[in-house]
Structure formats: C-alpha cells, structure tokens
C-alpha cells in the first residue's frame, strides 16, 4: 500500500468514527438524561427533620455561595436553596459554579420530611513549576511568596514575580488550566546599582524622650550590594555625626539615630540635614530637633487620648503609635455589689502632629447583659506657644456602641453613640489643665427603638513629675430624651441637666529608660439612686 493510499484510508476511518465518539463525550453544560442520572451516586441527606404530613422540603447547601442548582436538568436557583413541595421520589441533582468541578447526585424526596444536602465543590486547578537562574530566588504568585518551586494554582490568570537582591526583577502573567502541568523559566540578569526613596519617619523629634519617640529613622531603597556613608550636618553645614554603612544585603534599608554626635553627646535643638552617599548617588533630607516636644501621660478614652474618661487637647509627636491594655472591676449600690470586670484594648495613632486616630474595644465579663463594645475617634488638636507655656485647642468626632448597654439608670455618656466635641488645654510644663465638652446621640445603645442624647462637660488637672503623673477629673452628664430599655425612668421630653456626676483619679508611672508606662485609674459614676465604683490597672506602650 502506497503512503498516499494509507493516509487517504486513515482519514476516511476517522471521519466515520469521530461523530459516534463525539456523542459519547459529556457536554460542558451537561443536561439531564436517564443515562447521566444512572451514573450519579446516591446521596444521603446530612440532616432530616419531620414536617407537616403531605409536605416536602429540601435544602441544597454548598461550600460556595451562589452555586447553580439543577434538578432533572432544570435550573432551580443558587445555594443555599430551599425548595418546597416537590413530588416524592428520586431526582437527579447537579451543583456547579464557575471555576469549580460540577458534582452529580441522585437524591430522594419523601412526604413529611425536610431534608438538607451539603455539596462540597472542588476548584479546577493546575500545577506550575518555576525554574530560576540563579536558583535561590524569591518567588511570589499574586503577591504571596511561595515556599516551593512547584505550586498548585486555581484555574485562571496569575501574576508571578521572581526576584533576588542584586538582580533585575522578573514579572509575568501566566494562564493556568485545569488538570495541566507547566514549567516557567526565569533567568534574571544582574541589576545596576540604584538608590531611591531616602526619607525619615518624622520631621521633628526630641532625643531626650524614651523609646521610639526619642529616635528618628532613616530609610532608603537599593538594588544591589554597595558600601555607603551617612553624614548628619548641623544648620551651619558642619558634620556632627558620621557612619559607614556596610555592604547592603537586601533592598529596603533602615537606620535609627538617637540624636547624639559621633562622640556620644546629645545635640542641641535646631535644623539638621542627613546626607547619604552611595556609589555615584548623593541624597539628603532635613529634620528638626526640638526638646519642647513631650509625650503626654495619657489614657486612651472613648474619645481619643485624655485623662480618665475625658478627652484632652494632648499632642503626640507625628507618627507616634500608642497601644494600651487594661483590666478592672465595677461595684455598684451601697453594699458594693459586683457589677462586672471590664477588659479593654486601645490603639492611638498620630497620623500628623495635629491629627490623631484612635480605636478602643473590649468586653464586660461578669455583667448579666455582657456584650462587646467598641469606639473610634478622629481628633484634631492645635497649639499656640506663649511665654508661660502653651494653649492647646481642638475638636473631635467619634462613634461607638455596644449590643447591650451597661449602667441601667442610663443617661450618662459611657462611650456609645455618634457625636463630637471640643477640647481646650493650658500646658504649664509640669502642670496641665484641660476642659472638654461632648454631645452624643444614641448614647445608651444603638439597639433601642427610641434613642437618647447626652451632653458631657468635664475638667481635668494633671501634674507631671519625672516618673509619676497624677490627674484628677470631674464631669457632668446631662440627659435628653429616653430609650425603651428596661429600668429607664426618664420621660420623653424632660431634660435632666444633672443626670449623672463623674469624678476620678488617674496615676501614670513611667520608668526612666522605658518606652512604656503603667496606668492606675479609679472613678465614681453617681446617679440619683445608684453609684458605680470602677477601678482599673493597665499599661501603655509607645511605638
């Protein structure tokens, strides 16, 4: 048989066989048939409940929300799906979702039963192996670093990045198909040296402060190994500090400086410039040393940094992060009945020296209606320096809530609701006097159909020595409106100007070389017929 005749005969055979063979392949969107139904496995329900006689109900659940559900080839809806009053009998069930392999089952429906079926769908996936030169590269897929050269990925497009210090970065978008295997080869070329993004984490700092507030950080980005030099010059251009930087071993570099000269003496206040020299690059950044900057001995309240429960016009240095944790107990009534044991954690971040963002949350274990509480606050403060000290002023916006409100008499500002206020302060170095005024709506709880409002006005005086700060404060809570909560004895229209009176003490202890301090607090919240005594201890960390 000649080659030409063999090819001609083979093509004829394939044309005759292929139509029959193609009919045996399942379609991508397979429809119901008795043959398909017979191949599906019988699925037992994960849960069966009795319902009314003559009624049926089935529920189809899946690990994927909104997966398509087909019964006997007819589309019924998306998971989780409940179908009522199907005729009793057996049905062919298909569940599918984009990017997942479909599942097929036979299920049975019976009178008087509510049956639930749970279907676990598996993603379509493929395998990818990375071959890199050099071999010890950092490989990431969709921004996540992988630990192995071979990885299993979901079907679809993925962005892959291969990098190594000293080499040019390799980035590629790949397509992964189900049940396939592919190899990605990445050959990196050596990078030229580049220096960029030389900056400081703050524009001004006080080297006399403890911890991170008394240091300044320099950071920059390089592309390969090199030796550099950092020089800090004063306002006259005279070098006061020099440091030789060894071979870089990674891209991101960070240097911390404590405000001292090369001989170890602390530098005086003024403007300084940091000059970075590496290879042919020379970059500089300026900053200020200012010893008038202080870290206030503050608590994180529901309304930002302050004293006790009152917000104050305190100013933290720019980019200061404060974390606080506290625990305590609350007693109520004349017989000192245990009311609860509050646990809380707070965070305050001075985005700028005039803007502070704070978050506070916790729980009240031991209270019969215990629920979690939260609050957030955005506070803006400004300062005018005078001959005798400084005048601080600012304003704030806050939001907070709890599922169930404590302090049953209600009508006091305990952190719930939405509102705002103003803060004023006089700073006489070791002595600080402050005033705050806040108005809050939905002050008892956001879960009440009726909501009330509270106006809280308070004053505080703080005395600060080297390591101990003592504060006393007091506040008047005025109530407007009422809720529909139990034990709320207020009337709808009457304003209660002296609904509650609050007073407290706040002690802060700070070790001489530490960037943390210990807080001890106590307060009394007095209603007409009930008192609440609160004592707490905690610690605050400066980052």
What does this structure look like?
The chain is mainly beta. It has a 12-stranded antiparallel beta barrel with strand order 30-32-33-34-35-36-37-38-39-40-41-42. The radius of gyration is 35 Å and the shape is flat.
Low-confidence stretches: 11-30
Strand content: over 45%
Q: Tell me how many strands there are.
A: 42
Largest sheet: 12 strands, antiparallel, barrel
Counting helices, strands and paired strands, the structural category is mainly beta
Overall pLDDT confidence:
87
- The tally of helices reads 2
Strand order of the largest sheet: 30-32-33-34-35-36-37-38-39-40-41-42
For the CA atoms, what is the radius of gyration?
A: 35 Å
Distance between the termini: 87 Å
Oligomer: single chain
Shape: flat
Secondary structure elements and their pairing?
Blueprint: H1 3-23, H2 34-39, E1 41-42, E2 47-50, E3 56-62, E4 68-71, E5 74-78, E6 81-84, E7 89-96, E8 100-101, E9 103-109, E10 113-119, E11 122-123, E12 125-133, E13 138-141, E14 144-145, E15 150-154, E16 156-163, E17 170-176, E18 181-187, E19 195-200, E20 204-205, E21 216-222, E22 228-233, E23 239-245, E24 252-257, E25 270-278, E26 281-289, E27 299-301, E28 304-307, E29 310-311, E30 321-332, E31 337-340, E32 343-352, E33 355-363, E34 373-385, E35 390-402, E36 417-428, E37 431-441, E38 453-464, E39 468-480, E40 495-509, E41 516-526, E42 531-542
Parallel strand pairs: 1-9, 3-10, 12-18, 20-26
Antiparallel strand pairs: 2-10, 3-6, 4-5, 4-7, 7-9, 8-11, 12-15, 13-14, 13-16, 16-17, 19-21, 21-24, 22-23, 22-25, 25-26, 27-28, 28-29, 30-31, 30-32, 30-42, 32-33, 33-34, 34-35, 35-36, 36-37, 37-38, 38-39, 39-40, 40-41, 41-42
């Amino acid at each position: 048989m000649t080659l030409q005749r063999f090819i001609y005969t083979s093509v004829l055979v394939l044309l005759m066989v292929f139509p029959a063979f193609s009919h045996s392949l399942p379609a991508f969107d397979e429809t119901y048939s008795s043959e398909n139904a017979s191949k599906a496995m019988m699925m037992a329900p994960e849960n069966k409940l009795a319902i009314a006689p003559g009624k049926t109900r089935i529920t189809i659940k899946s690990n994927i929300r909104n997966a398509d559900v087909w019964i006997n080839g007819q589309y019924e809806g998306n998971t989780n799906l409940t179908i009522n009053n199907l005729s009793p009998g057996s049905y062919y069930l298909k569940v599918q979702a984009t990017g997942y392999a479909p599942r097929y089952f036979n299920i049975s429906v019976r009178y008087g039963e509510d049956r639930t079926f749970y279907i676990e769908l598996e993603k379509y996936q493929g395998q990818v192996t990375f071959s890199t030169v050099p071999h010890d590269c950092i490989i990431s897929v969709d921004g996540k670093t992988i630990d192995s050269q071979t990885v299993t990925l979901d079907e679809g497009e993925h962005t892959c990045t291969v990098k190594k210090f000293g080499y040019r970065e390799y980035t590629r978008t790949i397509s992964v198909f189900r049940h396939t295997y592919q190899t990605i080869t990445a050959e990196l070329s050596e990078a030229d040296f580049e220096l960029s993004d030389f900056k400081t984490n703050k524009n001004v700092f006080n080297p006399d402060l403890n911890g991170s507030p008394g240091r300044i950080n320099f950071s920059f980005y390089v592309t390969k190994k090199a030796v550099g030099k950092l020089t800090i010059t004063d306002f006259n251009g005279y070098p006061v500090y020099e440091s030789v930087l060894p071979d870089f071993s990674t891209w991101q570099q960070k240097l911390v400086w404590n405000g001292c000269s090369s001989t170890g003496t602390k530098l005086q206040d003024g403007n300084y410039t940091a000059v970075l020299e590496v290879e042919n690059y020379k970059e500089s950044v300026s900053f200020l040393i200012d010893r008038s900057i202080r870290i206030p001995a503050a608590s994180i309240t529901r309304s930002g940094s302050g004293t006790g429960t009152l917000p104050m016009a305190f100013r933290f240095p720019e980019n200061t992060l404060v974390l606080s944790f506290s625990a305590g107990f609350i007693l109520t009534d004349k017989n000192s009945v245990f009311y609860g044991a509050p646990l809380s954690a707070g965070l305050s971040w001075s985005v700028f020296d005039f803007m502070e963002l704070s978050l506070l949350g916790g729980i009240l274990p031991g209270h019969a209606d215990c629920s979690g509480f939260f609050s957030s606050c955005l506070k803006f403060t400004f300062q005018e320096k005078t001959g005798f000290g400084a005048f601080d002023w600012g304003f704030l916006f806050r939001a907070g809530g709890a599922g169930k409100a404590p302090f049953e008499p209600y009508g006091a500002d305990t952190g719930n609701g939405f509102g705002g206020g103003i803060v004023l302060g006089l700073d006489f170095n070791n002595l600080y006097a402050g005033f705050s005024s806040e108005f809050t709506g939905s002050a008892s709880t956001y879960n009440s159909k009726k909501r009330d409002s509270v106006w809280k006005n308070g004053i505080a005086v703080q005395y600060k020595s080297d390591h101990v700060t003592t504060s006393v404060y007091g506040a008047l809570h005025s109530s407007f409106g009422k809720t529909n909560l139990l034990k709320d004895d207020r009337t709808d229209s009457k304003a209660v100007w002296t609904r509650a009176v609050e007073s407290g003490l706040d002690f802060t202890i700070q070790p001489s070389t530490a960037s943390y301090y210990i807080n001890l607090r106590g307060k009394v919240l007095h209603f007409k017929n009930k008192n609440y005594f609160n004592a707490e201890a905690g610690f605050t960390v400066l980052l």
